[in-house]
């Protein structure tokens, strides 16, 4: 067996489809299928229950998939260490971003990254927190830029920015002429929120629930832009993070008001695997992002 066999096995476990797994590995379907059979013969155990409809792993197959993921992770770490790029900001770097951060943060930091680290080859991946965490654990991503949550606790975190949230209301709302709103004013109010899977949903609603508000269970947005448009249409009020706000207090039918007592916020971090040899690179990345955001504040 070899490392490539482990890659075929993990890809098949992820895609549950021979053709899709083969495409992900850039080989033909017969090649991947044949190598999986050879691996079974070499191990002396059946990894799959084969049928024309789906790919189903046996119990021993699932255990070996988990071990293969760990081996591939260690191989990546070995290559990173051997590449002598532990501190140099050169070569590829795969970074994951959450959807409520990436569209607003990337335009601010990518120009600075290209200017300061012209030899750094960025690969940017956007997904929800639970998906990014799994990809980081599997070694598919080098680091994550996201809001710190319980799911990121197993990783090392470097603080980047404490991002406050503002209250967004329609322009004809009674609060529209206020400069700030005490969070306790939300008591008894209903707020619009993102759908399940977005960490910002839990973070924003946590502050709203503490103030006595409740979420509108008739509507769950898939993005911050959907939330913003629903507010503009007069469907309700919500909390939006600072990086997603325009410079103007009022724009496109939405008024943004500073929230106080307390000021709701989320802690943005760079997260990476504790054993990664690229720690210095992540610290350089976090430092530049922090300086860029502070300069644009």
Explain what this protein looks like in three dimensions.
One of its GO terms (molecular function) is DNA binding. Belongs to the LysR transcriptional regulatory family. Pfam families: HTH_1 (PF00126), LysR_substrate (PF03466). Keywords: Activator, DNA-binding, Transcription, Transcription regulation. InterPro entries: LysR_HTH_N, LysR_subst-bd, WH-like_DNA-bd_sf, WH_DNA-bd_sf. With 297 residues, this protein is of the alpha/beta class. It folds into three domains: 3-82, Winged helix-like DNA-binding domain superfamily/Winged helix DNA-binding domain (Arc Repressor Mutant, subunit A, Orthogonal Bundle), CATH 1.10.10.10; 91-161 and 267-296, Periplasmic binding protein-like II (D-Maltodextrin-Binding Protein, domain 2); 162-266, D-Maltodextrin-Binding Protein, domain 2 (3-Layer(aba) Sandwich). The protein contains nine helices and 13 strands. The protein has helices spanning 3-15, 18-25, 29-43, 59-82, 102-116, 129-137, 199-210, 224-232, 279-296, and strands at 48-50, 55-57, 91-97, 120-126, 143-147, 156-170, 180-182, 190-194, 214-221, 238-241, 250-251, 254-260, 265-272. Strands 3, 4, 5, 6, 7, 10, 11, 12 and 13 form a nine-stranded mixed β-sheet that branches. Strands 1-2 form a two-stranded antiparallel ribbon. A hairpin with a 4-residue loop joins strand 1 (48-50) and strand 2 (55-57). Helix 1 crosses helix 2 and helix 2 packs across helix 3. The protein is globular, with a radius of gyration of 23 Å.
């Amino acid at each position: 067996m070899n490392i490539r066999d482990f890659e075929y096995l993990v890809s098949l476990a992820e895609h549950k489809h021979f053709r899709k797994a083969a495409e992900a590995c850039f080989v033909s379907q017969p090649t991947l299928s044949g190598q999986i059979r050879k691996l079974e013969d070499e191990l002396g155990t059946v990894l799959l229950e084969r049928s024309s409809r789906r790919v189903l792993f046996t119990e021993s197959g699932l255990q070996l998939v988990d071990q293969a993921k760990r081996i591939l992770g260690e191989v990546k770490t070995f290559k990173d260490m051997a590449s002598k790029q532990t501190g140099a900001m050169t070569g590829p770097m795969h970074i994951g971003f959450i959807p409520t951060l990436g569209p607003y943060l990337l335009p601010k930091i990518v120009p600075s990254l290209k200017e300061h680290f012209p030899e750094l080859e960025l690969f940017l991946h956007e997904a929800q927190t639970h998906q990014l965490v799994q990809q980081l654990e599997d070694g598919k991503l080098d680091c994550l830029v996201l809001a710190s949550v319980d799911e990121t606790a197993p990783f090392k975190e470097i603080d980047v920015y404490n991002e406050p949230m503002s209250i967004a209301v329609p322009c004809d709302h009674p609060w529209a002429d206020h400069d700030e709103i005490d969070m306790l004013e939300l008591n008894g109010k209903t707020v619009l929120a993102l759908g399940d899977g977005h960490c910002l949903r839990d973070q924003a609603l946590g502050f709203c629930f503490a103030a006595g508000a409740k979420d509108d269970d008739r509507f769950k947005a898939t993005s911050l832009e959907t939330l913003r448009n629903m507010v503009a249409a007069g469907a309700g009020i919500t909390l939006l993070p600072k990086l997603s706000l325009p410079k103007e207090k009022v724009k496109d039918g939405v008024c943004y008001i500073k929230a106080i007592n307390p000021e709701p916020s989320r802690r943005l971090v760079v997260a990476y695997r504790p054993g990664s040899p690229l720690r210095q690179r992540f610290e350089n990345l976090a430092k530049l992002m922090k300086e860029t955001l502070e300069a644009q504040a």
